[in-house]
Specification:
With 87 residues, the chain is α+β, with helices and mostly antiparallel strands. It folds into two domains: 32 residues, no CATH class; 54 residues, no CATH class. The protein contains two helices and four strands. The strands form two sheets. It has a two-stranded antiparallel ribbon with strand order 1-2. A two-stranded antiparallel sheet has the order 3-4. It is globular. The mean pLDDT is 87. It binds zinc ion.
Length: 87
């Protein structure tokens, strides 16, 4: 992987060799996996995208400024059909 393949603001210094390698390994790990959106629990804004359902992250919403812990296990993408389902 080269620096040109990474999307970032090029006013910043390019990543180190080590970080570049980690980025490459990360990309390889996601091969064949499905990427899903993690949405803000307050306003529904997409705050990140994830490939796993395990682990917890601290998320920050750029729109409503929500800042909190999100367990990837419970915050799966909710499609409209899922939300409207009656139990
Ligand atoms: Zn939000």
């Amino acid at each position: 992987m080269t620096v040109d393949e990474i999307e970032y603001d090029h006013r910043f210094d390019p990543p180190t060799e080590e970080n570049l390698r980690k980025l490459e390994l990360s990309r390889e790990e996601t091969a064949g996996l499905i990427c899903r959106d993690i949405k803000c629990p307050i306003c529904g804004y997409r705050i990140m995208r994830a490939y796993t359902t395990e682990g917890c992250v601290v998320a920050k919403c750029q729109r409503c400024k929500f800042n909190g812990i999100i367990s990837l296990r419970w915050f799966r993408r909710q499609t409209p059909s899922f939300r409207n389902r009656r139990y």
